[in-house]
TrEMBL record:
Pfam families in the record: G_glu_transpept
Name by which UniProt lists this protein: Glutathione hydrolase proenzyme
Assembly mode: This enzyme consists of two polypeptide chains, which are synthesized in precursor form from a single polypeptide.
Pathway: Sulfur metabolism; glutathione metabolism
């Protein structure tokens, strides 16, 4: 088996991309036919593909496929390995969503392993006595943590759709935690940036710094013995160990020492849920993406419905018309997100309306081609009449028609910054994804309302958008991204780059991105778009803001019997490996 060099796919990429060179010659050609003459080349495989944000996780997932495991086996193995190799965002102290598509049965299912609010949570728990939302409380205290779902979610995926035992899927992660791995530059930079938060708590400091208190340097070995022991207990006793065994005790003790809310009962009561993904169509493709408690699926389908009526391919990638229309669709979707989206186990969400073509027609009628609609002229629409009734993303596909799209998170890089003493993992600060107070933005500037208020046992609204696109009943594009509020728009752009602009998957994930989320009323732009185009957008009334890299969309396209992997150059450790 090959051992990939970190970031080998894109070390040579200049940060500013030349947009023109990304364009593919013809949409009529398949992915394999458009590779010659391209500037960006995907990894190619004939029997499967893994694309993750860390080369060590890609390596162990690749090994599982090579030894005959299926895509779910590889995904669960990668999921646990990332918790070790990318402790800032890969996680067992957090939660997420996994989409699984099985071509043979035609089924696409979603595993919801999002965190839940503890039973002791209250609607106003992050407000002071004057009713002001206190960001510090929802982000950096023990109360910021939702009940973690990852261990239960990955175990459920394996049980239902995998062939490996949990112990087998955990073995590489345990080895990486025990033996350690060589620290890359990104690790060192991350710890330096978050230093203040990581030194606040003894257990976190012990996890991320050497015994003498100094930070790790590039090339040194980073070992996580407490995490190895936690994973080993789960391997020996099963997923319930995390929720009812010694790990649960360690979490509860941590909570009790620091006024946290998670109890033994909260942990024992946690259950992942198998859900139906959101579904729509786009130019003859079937789009499946995560349903509530994520907003991602509803809004990617909604935006694609709005955009399908325009000839985006003819307008061209990076053209002012294309970018303008995308921004207008984004604003309208995010306005609805703020009003309507929440956990459907607790609130009614007009999902059929939001994802209906009739509603998209109504929203599109309000879009002018020559003028940006100011966000204060956009309120949430009325989907009801149409109602017929540092996060980590990885994509994996096998040769038997099974594809997995997984996004999971502890919310911020390093979550709350609080490690569970003796257990070796960070707690999420996912409670900040609830609306601490209606109308008050969360860390990503996202506004939530009543639908996303805090309630015991409820799942906080997410933007995570693991997505699988099928063509003629076959898995075609597997994608998704981290990036907070930018997740949905990043995923949208990968889909459009492949379907509208005919890009190969490496070009599609590398191309510069834009983002609008209704409020604040600004169009965020990565480096790489033409200054002339940006002037045209300003002339239409868009307020532009240059933004550093958005998202990290590790993606796969399957076409003509080949697997194409696109590792996102925005993460230095990204790696796609075909077999
Ligand atoms: O669930 C959500 O939407 C957020 N907690 C995701 C956070 C995230 O993507 C941070 N990473 N870049």
């Amino acid at each position: 088996m090959r051992f990939p060099t970190p970031g080998r796919l894109h070390r040579a990429l200049a940060p500013r991309l030349l947009v023109g060179a990304l364009l593919a010659p013809s949409l009529a050609l398949g992915q394999s036919a458009i590779l010659e003459g391209e500037r960006f080349h995907p990894e190619v495989g004939t029997h499967g593909m893994v694309a993750t944000s860390h080369f060590l996780a890609s390596e162990v997932a690749h090994e599982v496929l090579a030894e005959g495991g299926n895509a779910v086996d590889a995904a669960v193995t990668a999921g646990f390995a990332l918790a070790v190799t990318q402790p800032r965002s890969g996680n067992i102290g957090g939660g997420g969503f996994m989409l699984i598509s099985d071509e043979a049965s035609g089924e696409v299912i979603a595993i919801d392993y999002r965190e839940t609010a503890p039973a002791g949570a209250t609607e106003t728990m992050f407000q002071d006595e004057d009713g002001n939302a206190v960001a510090e409380w929802s982000r950096f205290t023990h109360r910021a943590a939702g009940v973690p779902g990852t261990v239960a979610g990955l175990a459920l995926a394996l049980e239902e759709y995998g062939t490996l035992s949990l112990a087998e899927a955990l073995a590489p992660a345990i080895r990486l935690a025990e033996e350690g791995f060589t620290v890359p530059q990104r690790f060192v930079d991350g710890v330096a940036e978050a230093g203040e938060r990581l030194t606040r708590w003894d257990a976190t400091r012990a996890m991320f710094y050497k015994e003498d208190g100094s930070p790790y340097a590039v090339g040194e070995t980073f070992r996580q013995p407490d995490l190895a022991a936690t994973l080993q207990r789960i391997a020996e006793q099963g997923a319930r160990e995390f929720y009812e065994g010694e790990t649960a005790e360690l979490i509860v003790a941590e909570m009790q020492r620091h006024d946290g809310l998670i109890t033994r009962e909260d942990l024992a009561g946690y259950r992942p849920v198998i859900r139906e993904p959101s579904h729509g169509t786009y130019r003859g493709h079937d789009i499946y993406a995560m349903s509530p408690p994520s907003s991602g699926g509803a809004h990617i389908v909604q935006m694609l419905n709005i955009l399908e009526a325009y000839d985006i391919g003819a307008m061209g990638f990076g053209a002012a018309d294309t970018m303008h229309l995308m921004a207008e669709a984004m604003k309208r979707a995010y306005a609805d997100r703020a009003e309507y989206l929440g956990d459907t186990d607790f609130v009614e969400v007009p999902l059929d309306g939001i994802t209906s073509e009739g509603y998209a027609d109504a929203l599109r009628a309000g879009i002018a081609i020559d003028r940006a609609t100011p966000s204060d002229e956009i309120a949430a629409g009325d989907p009801a009449p149409f109602e017929s009734n540092e996060t980590t993303h990885f994509s994996i596909a096998d040769d038997d028609g099974l594809a997995v799209s997984n996004t999971y998170t502890i919310n911020f890089s390093y979550g709350s910054g609080i490690a569970v003493e003796g257990a070796g993992f960070l707690l999420n600060n996912e409670m900040d994804d609830f609306s601490a107070k209606p109308g008050v933005p969360n860390a990503y500037g996202l506004i939530g309302g009543e639908a996303n208020r805090i309630e015991p046992g409820k799942r906080m609204l997410s933007s995570m958008t693991p997505t699988i696109v099928k063509r003629d009943g076959e898995n075609y594009l597997i994608t998704g991204s981290p990036g907070g509020s930018r997740i949905i728009t990043t995923t949208l752009q990968v889909v459009m780059n492949v379907i509208d602009h005919g890009m190969n998957i490496q070009s599609a994930v590398s191309a510069p991105r834009l983002h609008h989320q209704w409020l604040p009323d600004e169009l965020r732009i990565e480096a790489g778009f033409s200054p002339d185009t940006l002037s045209l957008l300003e002339a239409r009334g868009h307020t532009l803001r240059q933004q550093s890299a958005m998202g990290a969309a590790q993606s796969i396209v399957i076409d003509d019997g080949r697997f194409y992997g696109g590792a996102d150059p925005r993460r230095a450790t990204s790696s796609a490996m075909g077999l």
